[in-house]
Amino acid sequence: MALSGFAAAAPSATAVDASGYPKGPVKLIVPFAPGGPTDTVARLVSLKLQEMWGQPVLVDYKPGAGTAIGVDFVAKAPADGLTFGMVNSSFAVNPSLRRSLPYDIVKDLAGITQIANLQLAIVARPDAPFGTLAELVAYAKKNPGRLSYGTPGAGSTTHLGAELLKREAGFDMLHAPFKGSAPAHTELLGGRLDLVFDPFLSVLPYVKAGRMKMIATLGEKRIPGYGYPTVAETLPGFHVSALLGFVAPRATPPAVVTKIQADTAKVLHDAEMRRRVEEQGMEVVASTPAQFDAFVQGEMKRWSRVIAEAGIQAE
After folding, report:
1. Are 120 and 217 in contact (CB under 8 A)?
2. Which InterPro entries does the record match to this protein (predicted)?
3. Is 266 exposed, middle or buried (0-12, 13-18, 19+ CB in 10 A)?
4. What average pLDDT does the segment 200-227 reach?
């Protein structure tokens, strides 16, 4: 599959009138179990769209297979704009990570908008012999094979970010994948891991309590309201974040896709909504369909190389 296809195959503008959209209840497919920041944002946005549209917007959870079950449901839904879905970084990663997806990201799905970036972080035990990224890299190079790190799962954005960091900084460490963040936290707190790569908001309470040490955040710039350094301050140009966005069946009329994007952007640009999304450790984006398509294209290329070089396989 050509990686440039997701952007190239985006629907072109048409004269379809979407001013009366939606004409019935809307279903938002979330490919995760209820709970967590992704679900919170889905419910916040769906409630505001429901108010704006005067139609029910129902959140329907379809977890499993690294989000592939939920995304497949969206891909095969009627292309009338009444069913669209939320995706995370697995959307761009799965074509390289999972060789037998039941859908084709190019032929079956169209980007609507990138809602937000989820901020990620690197934390260590309080007694770790390093406190900055530069010290971590120096320690790892002097002690090859000694460092271990945990993530919420193999193929997760945190795992891929750690692998990218290893390659760009020129050091090695052992990966310990877990089924979620909580088990990784337990192992770190118990002294059986040296590091954890995880969403910023997930580790922040431990950092504030002094039970974990913040090494760096992985975004392009420091998280507003916090003084934690970024990886980019040591390795210029490095940044990793987890995307959150909306997609629709490929044949959905472009005017309807544009309508959903424009109304979602209005919701996200509301000051109170922006504050509530940022409370979930996310940075609001609200991109256009073309911008989201281009971003996904870039992420597909970027992570396909990391996955191939590291030999990463889906759990």
Report:
1. yes
2. BUG (IPR005064), Bug_dom1 (IPR042100)
3. middle
4. 93
